[in-house]
Structure formats: structure tokens, C-alpha cells
TrEMBL record:
This is MFS transporter. Gene3D superfamilies: MFS general substrate transporter like domains. Keywords: Cell membrane, Membrane, Transmembrane, Transmembrane helix. The lineage of its organism: Bacteria, Bacillati, Actinomycetota, Actinomycetes, Micrococcales. The keyword Cytoplasm does not apply.
Length: 419
């Protein structure tokens, strides 16, 4: 049984939520089951980058064509998040999460057996379709299970699966692909997806959407200015991080002077920073959502400048790279929660669109970095451009604060983070 309660959220909006009565063990196991799906998704999203040379050689295509395998997946995320998010608005959440994981598994099976490059592109697109919608429904399920006072921390655990994948899943799968063939990546991720389906089916309770949920209501949410300001904030804010991260390899070798053999450790350090930031962001967002965004975005801007300024010295360069990972990743749970809060009548669509915005930021950040490098501004330039994007993100956040105050006058929006 569950009782309905009304609790003010941290952006000042009244959040209607069901407070479930489950044991702590049940809640922990259910949320970890959902996080396993995040781990599988994170592994497939990033491992292909480390196996791109093997994929190009096997498929007999150029390096630029091989890069489209990454783009096809990202396009699937951008398209699938709103479409599948809308489709699942009125569905029971556990069964819908299983449907999305099933589609994810099918996409990887097709990738495993695709006989040529063209079909591989189609398979990668299909694999990306359920990405955003799964994270969206998983975030809503986790928030419901944890209750209103711990919802952001629960969302952080689900998203933490993606962060942990960068530290554990991606290196292991990359090694296996190099040793036994790059398509083993798809077989391993398929196994992870099946394990997740079993865990979700057995460990998470059924969870009906709110009684007022409807596809029409979700579509009406698209007219909400706060939603689009939040999406714009995600795109601009995260693009700064990707402007730096997309070119971290040449910066570390050509500017810092590290041997290429140290790059896995560099990427691992950044990934560890992402894990730390993700959980710090979840804790902080349960105190103040938009306050966390302002703080994290401001720190991203500062640490990117410091990284660029000290990139020629190993120790400070690695320190500030780690701190960029921490501060940028802290944005994830905060932005996911903010989008849900901004559109309380269309939470499924809003939660899914966060991941469309994240992938759009990936493309924008890489493009910004490429543009300044092509202008011969040097390899430090993407970090400076990323810092400017973060400053713009702070300005957009302050506008989001104004909108939240207009929507709910008299309720606190920015509050100090306290333990």
C-alpha cells in the first residue's frame, strides 16, 4: 500500500508523490537493479570509442565512417528519448522498463550479427533508442521508491551506473574487444542487459504512473517554458565538459607531455571524478536543486580555466581534470530532478529529454572544440571555450530561478546546502 502526500520540491513547485511503504533492503535492491541498466548503457555508449580502430578494420570503412557508429547511437538517443518517453507515459513503469531493456537487447543482438556497415549503423541506432526513455522511467521509479526527501540521491544511484561504467565496464569491455574481437562488446552488454531484466523483474515492485498521467498531458508539457530553459541549460552546461573531454588525449600527450600508455589512467581518473561528483550532486540536490546547478556550473567554469592554464604541468593538470569531472557530473542528478520538477504533469517526457539534451551537448561540445582547434588557437582552447559555456550556463540557471519564483511565489528556490 502507498499513501498520497504533497511535498514542496526544492525548486518551489508542489510535488505530488506517493510515499511507498517498503523496507530499506527492498528499496536498496530495487534501485541497484535499475542502476545495473545504467551500467550496461554506459558501457555500450563509451566502449565503442576505444574499439573504433578494430571496428573500422573489420567493417572495411574509413575512420570518419567508423565515427558514424558513435553518431548513430547518439541520434537514436535523441530521437528515442521523447518518442518512447511519451509512449510510456501511461504504462506501468516496471513493465515498461523491461520493454525498453528488451529493445536495447535486440539492438545489441543485431549489432553482434550485422553482416555489413550499413546494417551495423541501423543496429546502433536501434540500440540508442531506449537509452533516454530507460533512464527517464528508472529515475521516476527510483524517486518514488526513495520518497521525496531522498529522491535526488536515488536518481544519482541510477545515473551512477553510467558513471561507474566509465571506470570499470568500459576498460574491461575494451580489453576484451581488443583480445577476442571487437564484437564481443555487444555480447557482453547483451549479457548485462539480460541480468538487468531479471533483476528489475524480481527486485522492483510494480509502479503505476500518477492517476492524472496521459499522453496529452505529456505533450502539453512541451509548452512549458521552464522545461525548455532546463533543456537549454543541460545542452549548454554539459557542452563545456565535452569540449574538454573530447580532446583530452592530444592535450595530455602534446601539452602535458604524458606518454600515450598513461591515457587509460587519465581517463580512469576522470571517470572516478564523475562517480564522486554524481553522488555528491545527488546529496546536494536533495537540499537545493537549482542551488546545486549554480554551484556546480560555476565550479566547472573555474576548474576548466585552471586546467587549461596548468595543462603543461602534470600534477595540477590531473588535479583540475579530476575536479572538472566531479563538478560536471554533479550536474547530472540536479538537472534530471529539475526537469522533472519543472513539468510535474509530464514527468516521463521531461526525465527522458534530459538524456537527449546530454547527447546533444556531446555533439555541441565536440564541435566547439574542433572549431577552435581548426582556428589554430591551440589544444588548450577547447577548455577555455568550455569555461565560457559554463558561465553562460550559470546565467541560464539564474533565469530558471526567476521562472521558478514566478511559478510559485513565496516558496524558497535557492537554499544553502547543509548537511
Amino acid at each position: 500500500m502507498a499513501t498520497s502526500t504533497q511535498t514542496p520540491d526544492h525548486d518551489g513547485a508542489p510535488l505530488v508523490t506517493d510515499a511507498p511503504r517498503f523496507s530499506r533492503k527492498q528499496v536498496v535492491l530495487a534501485i541497484l537493479a535499475l542502476a545495473t541498466g545504467g551500467f550496461a548503457i554506459g558501457t555500450t555508449e563509451f566502449a565503442i570509442m576505444g574499439l573504433l580502430q578494430e571496428a573500422v578494420a573489420d567493417l572495411g570503412v574509413t575512420r570518419s565512417q567508423g565515427g558514424l557508429l558513435i553518431s548513430a547511437y547518439a541520434l537514436g538517443v535523441v530521437v528515442g528519448a521523447p518518442v518512447l518517453g511519451l509512449f510510456g507515459a501511461t504504462r506501468e513503469r516496471r513493465s515498461y522498463a523491461l520493454i525498453l531493456l528488451g529493445l536495447f537487447t535486440v539492438g545489441h543482438l543485431l549489432s553482434l550479427i550485422a553482416p555489413n556497415y550499413e546494417l551495423m549503423l541501423v543496429a546502433r541506432f536501434i540500440s540508442g533508442l531506449p537509452h533516454g526513455a530507460f533512464f527517464g522511467v528508472a529515475a521516476l521509479m527510483a524517486a518514488h521508491l526513495a520518497g521525496p526527501t531522498k529522491r535526488s540521491r536515488a536518481i544519482a544511484v541510477v545515473m551512477g551506473g553510467l558513471a561507474v561504467a566509465n571506470v570499470i565496464g568500459v576498460p574491461i569491455v575494451t580489453w576484451a574487444g581488443q583480445q577476442f574481437g571487437w564484437r564481443w562488446m555487444f555480447a557482453i552488454v547483451m549479457l548485462l542487459a539480460v541480468i538487468t531484466m531479471i533483476a528489475v523483474a524480481t527486485l522492483t515492485p510494480r509502479q503505476e504512473p500518477h492517476a492524472s498521467a496521459s499522453k496529452r498531458g505529456e505533450l502539453k508539457g512541451l509548452a512549458n517554458r521552464r522545461l525548455w530553459v532546463g533543456i537549454g541549460l543541460s545542452v549548454i552546461g554539459f557542452s563545456g565538459m565535452f569540449a574538454l573531454y573530447s580532446y583530452i588525449s592530444p592535450v595530455m600527450t602534446d601539452v602535458t607531455g604524458l606518454d600515450a600508455s598513461y591515457l587509460p589512467w587519465v581517463v580512469g581518473l576522470y571517470g572516478f571524478g564523475m562517480v564522486c561528483g554524481n553522488f555528491l550532486g545527488g546529496w546536494s540536490s536533495d537540499k537545493t536543486v537549482l542551488g546545486t546547478v549554480v554551484l556546480a556550473m560555476g565550479l566547472v567554469a573555474v576548474f576548466m580555466v585552471l586546467f587549461a592554464a596548468t595543462a603543461h604541468v602534470v600534477v595540477p593538470a590531473l588535479l583540475f581534470l579530476f575536479l572538472v569531472g566531479v563538478s560536471a557530473s554533479a550536474l547530472g542528478p540536479a538537472m534530471q530532478t529539475h526537469l522533472i520538477d519543472a513539468t510535474p504533469n509530464s514527468p516521463q517526457l521531461a526525465a527522458s529529454l534530459h538524456h537527449s539534451a546530454f547527447n546533444a551537448a556531446n555533439a555541441l561540445g565536440a564541435a566547439m572544440g574542433a572549431a577552435v582547434i581548426d582556428l589554430d588557437w591551440g589544444l588548450r582552447a577547447p577548455s577555455y571555450v568550455g569555461s565560457i559555456a559554463a558561465v553562460i550556463g550559470v546565467a541560464i540557471t539564474m533565469y530558471a530561478v526567476v521562472l521558478a519564483r514566478r511559478a510559485h511565489p513565496g516558496q524558497p528556490v535557492l537554499k544553502p546546502v547543509r548537511g
